[in-house]
Amino acid sequence: MIKCGKEEVNEELDKEIEVVEKKVKKKVPVVEKLNNLKQKNESFVNELKTVAVNDNVPSRIYHCKKCKTDYNLRKSYMRHIGLTCERRRSKAKLLLQSVEKMEAKTNLKPQIKNETTDSIKPHINKTNGSLFKKQPVPKKSGSNYRTCKICRKQFSTKYTLARHIRTLECSLKRKQLAGGSMPRRQKLKTH
């Protein structure tokens, strides 16, 4: 077997190369499969990270100190602070602020010619906290009310009675209008 010819050496090398290639071919597919799995796993992890960022997964919990509630999302916490928690201030503070706003307005007209706008104090309704430029007329039966001659409804001012008649709120006048009703002045104008 020991021959010094080039052909014999080449044949032996070819045989050894074939043996090595067979061994390597058996190992290479396993290594390639492992590398492919690793790449797929890394891409899957990256996808999970992007989905977690895009789905507003909370990174922290927001805690309200006033009412001791927890919120997962910042926008929910901010909505709570703006709408719920801040509006729980006492009614006295709110009334005081509204009176100050009313006094700050310069469009108050004096009731008597000698009075100035500084001396007029707005009236605060005790039931709902709304402000009026002057105290409203209390509801009483008697001469303070104007009565509609058609439907016998009572109105506190002559202006509301006139509006009632103009907008045809009375049931008798509605029948004269071909079945239509005019609850607002604009509807009457369009008619």
Automatic annotation (TrEMBL):
Domain of life: Eukaryota
Molecular function terms from GO: zinc ion binding
Domain C2H2-type, chain residue ranges per copy: 146-174
Location of the region described as Disordered in the Swiss-Prot/TrEMBL record: 119-138
Pfam families in the record: zf-C2H2
Coiled coil feature spans: 6-54
KW Coiled coil (keyword) present: yes
Matching Gene3D superfamilies: Classic Zinc Finger
InterPro entries: Znf_C2H2_sf, Znf_C2H2_type
Keywords, in A-Z order: Coiled coil, Metal-binding, Zinc, Zinc-finger
Name of protein: C2H2-type domain-containing protein
Species of provenance: Laodelphax striatellus (Small brown planthopper)
